[in-house]
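Allow me, if you will, to draw on your knowledge of protein folds for a short while. Thank you for your consideration; the sequence and its tokens are set out here:
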Amino acid sequence: MKSAFSLLELIFAIVIIGIISTFAIPKYLNTRNQALASTIQRDVISTINSIQSYYLINRKIDNLSDVITLNSKNWNIENTKMTFIEDENKCLELSIIDKKISLTVVEDAGAVCSELINRGIVTQEIDLI
């Protein structure tokens, strides 16, 4: 007598794995988006606080890279502007314009942007003074 799986047992196992994966994969992706949104939210709050503190001490900001160091995988930083891009769409942009911090959030850029809006990160302007 052979000790191996029959074709019926293998097909049954594959069907069960397929059913489980239809629930697990979307849950995994949603958890990943929530984690990234949490990271971006923390970065935005830290950056705003750091910009305000730096400006109070130095009375000018030439480069955001002088103010704060962020993960270059998530952020593109150029002079006084930093951008978070999700799936090749600009999701969030923070820039310093005329003694104001301008925060722009694009609602339909992706799942992470939607999560950020749900968390209260919205388009706004914040005074540096």
Summary: The chain has one domain: 7-127. The chain has three helices and five strands.
